[in-house]
Specification:
It is built from 2 helices and 4 strands; from the N terminus they run ααββββ. By secondary structure, it is of the alpha+beta class. The chain has a 4-stranded antiparallel beta sheet with strand order 1-2-3-4, covered by helices on one side. Strand 3 and strand 4 form a beta hairpin.
Amino acid sequence: TVDKAAESLLAEVFEIDMYANHRQHIEENSNLVRKIRKNIDGTRSMHYHVGKSLTVLDKRLFELWYSWKKINASNTGSTYMVGFVP
């Protein structure tokens, strides 16, 4: 179960473009790419392009796309759809 409101939970998931997260990426992955694009074409989506250093010789590139939508159902209240594409 989740103890937070849906809006708060989605805000925490989507708000990764903070200075502390950027500094942590620099410390752990040196100069590997980290690019975050939000609200692509006016949608509630985020494209996350990041390089990770798994070992000294093994570096990987990851691309993720998150999207969500709020649906107002007349008899059940608000419902949220969340999509994730690795």
